[in-house]
Amino acid sequence: RLGVLHVGQRIEEQADFEKIYKNAWADNANACAKQYAGTGALKTDYTRQRTQWGLIMDGWNSLIRYYKNNFSDGFRQDAIDLFLGNYSVDEVEHASPLHVKKDWKFLALPIIMVVAFSMCIICLLMAGDTWTETLAYVLFWGSASFGTFAIILYNGKDFVDAPKLVQKEKMD
Questions:
Q1: Which residues cross the membrane (predicted)?
Q2: 57 within some domain
Q3: Helix, strand or coil for residue 132?
């Protein structure tokens, strides 16, 4: 319709145009995905040329998306809701719904878990004088790591960065 190809021509027959078209398509997908999900699009290398590195990057982007979606993306949904008009600001209410005071556990528990897990790995890699000493250290740091992880899981909803601009009718 745009006159790029003649009637009966196929895009596969135009190698240069196909490459430019697929790259533009993948670049557009990346731009849209970065705005919406915070990472590049998945499988853009499939559009270009599938590689092992692209497969690894898809896994990495999936992990980053999981983290962002659960722990740091509530503000993004709030911005979208404000922009689309899904949330209307109540002029009578003076307190901001965006200001939520965080408890000490939001910073302390993840730090304790990471330190305990790191110490467990270090104790495994740098064995002590005896196997019982190494086992004691690994059990201590492993249980500390597992314990803090269990506490975080138990309080999981508190750690999730949920959108704060939720209409009261939608909460019911």
A1: 106-128, 134-154
A2: yes
A3: helix
Kindly state whether residues 64 and 28 are assigned to the same domain. yes
> Are residues 144 and 75 both part of a single domain?
no
Q: Which of 37-46, 66-75, 89-98 has the lowest mean pLDDT?
A: 89-98
Give per-residue pLDDT as tens, 51-72.
888 888 888 988 988 888 877 7
* pLDDT tens for each residue of 108-147: 888 899 999 999 999 888 877 888 888 899 999 999 999 9
Which pair of structure tokens corresponds to residue 39? 């990472």
3-state DSSP call for residue 82? helix
Which of 32, 60, 86 is the C-terminal boundary of a domain?
86
**What does the H/E/C string look like for the chain?**
CCCCCCCCCCHHHCHHHHHHHHHHHHHHHHHHHHHHHCCCCCCHHHHHCCCHHHHHHHHHHHHHHHHHHHHCCHHHHHHHHHHHCCCCCCCCCCCCCCCCCCCCHHHHHHHHHHHHHHHHHHHHHCCCCCHHHHHHHHHHHHHHHHHHHHHHHHCHHHHCCCCCCCCHHHHC
pTM (predicted TM-score)? 0.55
Please give the residue range of the domain that contains residue 151: 92-171
What pLDDT score does 172 carry? 46
